[in-house]
Specification:
Strand content of chain A: 5-15%
Distance between the termini of chain A: 59 Å
Strand order of the largest sheet of chain A: 2-1-3-4-5
Radius of gyration of chain B: 16 Å
Structural class of chain B: alpha/beta
Helix content of chain A: 25-40%
Distance between the termini of chain B: 32 Å
Number of strands of chain A: 5
Largest sheet of chain A: 5 strands, mixed
Order of helices and strands of chain B: HEHEHEHEH
Oligomer: heterodimer
CATH architecture of chain B: 3-Layer(aba) Sandwich
Shape of chain B: globular
Strand order of the largest sheet of chain B: 2-1-3-4
Order of helices and strands of chain A: HEEHEHEHHEHHHHHH
Chain lengths: 299, 163
């Protein structure tokens, strides 16, 4: 860990001193030793605050959409592999210029679930990491300017665990049962929009829920507004969601939003062979089309 | 038919509380909303009308410039307001007035349809079709078939129903 932090700090220091970036966004130790929080560094003397470990769960790419951050111009960002895909998608969608960002990629060995970490869990194991870490294909970020290698070994995966197993279970259910399941989940929604705020790809300056002439999505916290909001949120992210899981983590009432996001990601891959956040030169899946697209459902 | 027109005028004037589900108590006829494109399907429906062909009167047509303009949000809105079925229809592939609107729409709806079904909405309640300006017959058959299908569906509550 020490070696990793040293390299991270040296890279950040160099970038700031050479004026290659004006701001570094990274992780620092929180008030609780098993929680890490974000830190914004503009002074090269402050880089010692930077740190990285298995408790760095937040997707820092979320800050790239904020005007307060954008005004710094050139930004250095510390990212894990999964979060780096969000940066790729932002570049793909012209929300960010590749010239304005220096990506300090860190090799990640999996992030410990925060609810377990709060109870004192400190080891990276199959049973303690997020579902997304079990299916992770990008422990080393796909795109980076500087890479900080991990000095930890990878955790072992044995066959008996099934990430997002609930998706197959839901697929096998009847429509009524699925409906019952989601109705129960969406009933809990309090429309705090934390899922939107935590999402690195929800960058609209005016979200559809804030538009009130006409008021498309009801603002009260009952059906049908709840179902409508969750459905439209999921639709706006289908084919774009990179699976960082921040929406689900931010949700104060624990709606399993990743079940919807992951399902849509699988669906888009199956139908169009597209994975989001992999290639910055690819066209977004719904920004393009093919004359031979799936046509069976149309009369 | 005449009664329906009177009712619609009253609705439009705000005499009654508007509901896309229609007069629920009087008759249990399900209402179907058809979002159609200006250039093909609307003209196809128009042709059916001027040719005096009869089709189910449950359908209410909403004309938009292109299928590419038909946001899935409209479908959700129609369901929320009480429609039992929603039809989205536009130009055949290759015939789009704006060259590619229907292709983009097809992609969107491929994904959106799966999302609807995954979240527990009966997929039989949404229908998609390509109907050109000369296909008045096809419009009639699509509407009739869809209406019959909708009438056979059980009156289940779903994710959009108010409790």
């Amino acid at each position: 860990m020490e070696k990793m932090n040293d390299k991270l700090q040296n890279t950040a220091k160099e970038l700031l001193e050479n004026k290659e970036v004006n701001l570094i966004i990274g992780f620092t130790k929180g008030s609780n030793p098993l929680r890490m929080r974000s830190v914004f560094i503009t002074d090269p003397n402050d880089v010692s605050k930077l740190s990285f470990n298995a408790h760095c769960v937040q997707d820092l790419a979320v800050f790239l959409k904020k005007p307060e951050v954008k005004k710094f111009g050139k930004i250095g960002l510390v990212v894990k592999g999964c979060d780096e895909k969000a940066v790729n998608t932002l570049i793909q969608e012209y929300q960010l210029s590749r010239d304005n960002i220096k990506i300090i990629g860190v090799e990640c060995r999996g992030a410990v679930k925060q609810n377990l970490a709060d109870k004192g869990e400190d080891s990276v194991k199959q049973s303690t990491v997020y579902d997304k870490c079990l299916v992770c294909e990008v422990h080393t970020p796909l795109l980076y300017d500087y890479l900080v290698e991990s000095d930890e070994p990878a955790f072992e995966i044995n066959g008996d665990i099934k990430p997002y197993a609930k998706i197959e279970e839901l697929d096998a259910m009847s429509v009524e049962d699925r409906n019952m399941f989601w109705q129960k989940e969406f009933e809990k929604c309090i429309k705090c929009y934390a899922c939107r705020q935590a999402c690195p790809l929800c960058y609209c300056t005016r979200c559809i829920v804030e538009k009130n002439t006409p008021q498309w999505i009801e603002t009260n916290i009952e059906e049908t507004g709840n179902a409508q909001w969750n459905m439209i949120r999921a639709y706006h992210l289908s084919g774009r969601c990179i699976g960082c899981g921040e929406c689900e983590r931010a949700c104060p009432v624990n709606i399993p939003l990743m079940l919807v996001n992951e399902k849509m990601a699988r669906d888009v891959f199956e139908k169009f062979g597209y994975k989001s956040g992999v290639d910055i030169n690819a066209k977004p899946v719904f920004g393009t089309f093919d004359a031979n697209d799936f046509n069976e459902f149309i009369k | 038919m005449e009664n329906n027109i009177v009712e619609d005028v009253q609705n439009a004037r705000g005499d009654k509380e508007y509901s896309a589900g229609g007069a629920k108590d009087k008759d249990k006829e399900p209402r179907i909303i058809a979002f159609v494109c200006n250039w093909c399907t609307y003209n196809g429906a128009d042709l059916a009308g001027t040719s005096r062909m009869k089709y189910a009167e449950n359908v209410r047509v909403i004309k938009l410039p292109c299928t590419g303009r038909i946001d899935p949000l409209f479908v959700v809105e129609a369901f929320k307001k009480g429609a039992k079925g929603v039809l989205v229809s536009g130009c055949h592939p290759g015939d789009c007035h704006y060259t590619s609107g229907n292709y983009h729409s097809r992609r969107k709806y491929t994904a959106f349809r799966d999302l609807l079904s995954y979240l527990g909405v009966d997929i039989n309640r949404v229908e998609f079709s390509w109907i050109s300006a000369s296909e008045g017959n096809k419009w009639v058959s699509v509407i009739n078939e869809f209406t019959n299908k909708i009438k056979l569906l059980p009156d289940n509550s779903d994710i959009f129903s108010k409790k």
